[in-house]
Amino acid sequence: MKESLAKELAVLRQMGIEPGLDIVRVGARPDDLAYEQGALRRFDGLGIAARVFAFPEDISQEDFTAEFRKINDSGSVRGILLFRPLPKHLDGDSIGDMIRPAKDIDCMSPFNAAKVFLEGGKGGFAPCTPAAVMEILAHYGVDLAGKNVVVVGRSPVVGRPLAMLMLARNATVTVCHTKTQNLEEICKNADIVVAAAGRPKTITPACVSPKSIVVDVGINADENGKLCGDADYGAILPIVSMISPVPGGVGAVTTSILAAHVLRAANKLAEA
Ligand code: NAP
User: Fold this and answer.
1) Is there a smaller number of Cβ atoms within 10 Å at the N or the C end of the chain?
2) What's the pLDDT score for residue 75?
3) Ligand 1 atom 11: the closest Cα is on which residue?
4) Which pLDDT value is given to residue 125?
5) pLDDT tens figures, 163-200
6) Which residue's alpha carbon is at the smallest distance from atom 41 of ligand 1?
């Protein structure tokens, strides 16, 4: 991905287009900061300009809307990444309604969400993390048609859109959540389990079989404060056919997808 991104960037520059990323953060949640640092490092390595607009956690709706509007309405060809969830007193939906779909590289707008739900993301921007899961499976030649896929987690940013992307590739999809009964059995019978629960050891050896492919989206801290995913990696690795690690798995690919979306946004915005 890094090589093809470098080539795409060179082509855009020959056309006089200079892509960029505007990260918008409210407050300083540790997971936002970790994502931000990873993205800044990756963009620095690729030579794509990224800047951060950081606002205090107690910013008012009125001020935040005004600041966001300035970034959104600037005539630049830069993509926008807004960290979510926003603090409870801010209305994320109104920001999603406002963002220009061509700058909306992480699928906040109803326009891009509809593309994901109706057309598997074609022609719009799917959210970066679900897109990273699809990229990893495609890279390893996993054909999804007819496969039983279990997505553990139904959040609007990961589980739900991922289920739609899987469905568009003709997988048979089950979405699990905290009210799901017999999670272990449902997962064990699946060909592919994607863990996006945000809880360490949600996926245990009882959830997998030798045919299982596990993609771990979770980013958590274990009991010793060490970064870990949702799967009990050490216990599962000897059993399954494939498993993605944390760190160095979905998160790393997500920042490459983010860069790919930034380049595509610049191209779209320059054409507009
Ligand atoms: P979220 O909004 O907290 O949603 C978690 C989902 O998992 C909810 O739908 C919840 O069910 C379900 N869930 C929680 N515990 C469960 C359990 N024990 N069994 C079954 N379902 C369970 O989290 P998110 O934003 O989707 O993120 C999920 C994880 O991915 C987090 O660790 C986050 O840090 C990570 N993440 C990684 C990346 C990346 O690039 N790698 C990007 C974004 C997020 P209910 O709906 O019933 O509450």
Assistant:
1) C
2) 86
3) 177
4) 97
5) 999 999 999 999 999 999 999 999 999 999 999 999 99
6) 251
Distance (Å) of CA 89 to CA 41, 58, 61, 94, 201? 31, 8, 8, 12, 32
Assess whether the C-beta atom of 257 lies below 6 angstroms from ligand 1: no
pLDDT of 220: 92
| Rounded Cα–Cα distance for residues 50 and 74 (Å) | 15
CA distances to 57, 191, 195, 197, 241 from 231, in Å: 32, 16, 7, 10, 14
The CATH number for 128-251, chosen from 3.40.50.720, 3.30.559.10, 3.40.190.80, 3.40.50.80, is 3.40.50.720
Ligand 1 test: best mutation among 29, 31, 33, 158, most atoms within 8 Å of CB?
A: 158
Predicted TM-score (pTM) above 0.70: yes
Atom of ligand 1 nearest to the CA of 254: 40
**2-106+252-271 and 128-251: identical CATH topology:** yes
